[in-house]
């Protein structure tokens, strides 16, 4: 699985470095297999389950409050089905910009969840549009883990963290 993640990271970095907007990257890399939800739509929703598809080190730097980290490399479907028993729950998955979250969303749909959405632009777009994030202690922060320097170009607001 580590090889697959590394390969995906190299491909994504190559694509992203050549692109300069989140919409352009999402158009190239996503299949739109999981319906998008916008940041504004998320802000107006209640009664949702928010899943963070980034790795633990990214999640610990910051995440959207009340999100549950399910990761990408070590995604555990049994953990998810234990936490979310209602297959009709409104689930919103996010990652950095929306690529990994689409893949996790696809897995959730295969597990039988019916109301799964991918946050368009991910946590970057959330922060770019004034959304707040918390660290692993639940304290508000401006820090956002941007995966690497190339990906950081899509974060316009907040403090960029590459390694942690």
UniProtKB/TrEMBL annotation:
What are the GO MF terms of this UniProt record?
transferase activity
Is the keyword ATP-binding in the record? no
Signal peptide (from-to): 1-18
Instruction: Note the Pfam families from the entry.
Output: Rhodanese
Q: Where is the Rhodanese domain?
A: 44-135
Keyword Signal tagged: yes
What keywords would UniProt list here? Signal, Transferase
- Coiled-coil blocks: none
PANTHER family noted in UniProt: FAD-DEPENDENT OXIDOREDUCTASE (PTHR43031), PYRIDINE NUCLEOTIDE-DISULPHIDE OXIDOREDUCTASE (PTHR43031:SF1)
Under what name is this protein listed? Answer: Rhodanese-related sulfurtransferase
Record the organism.
Flavobacterium chilense
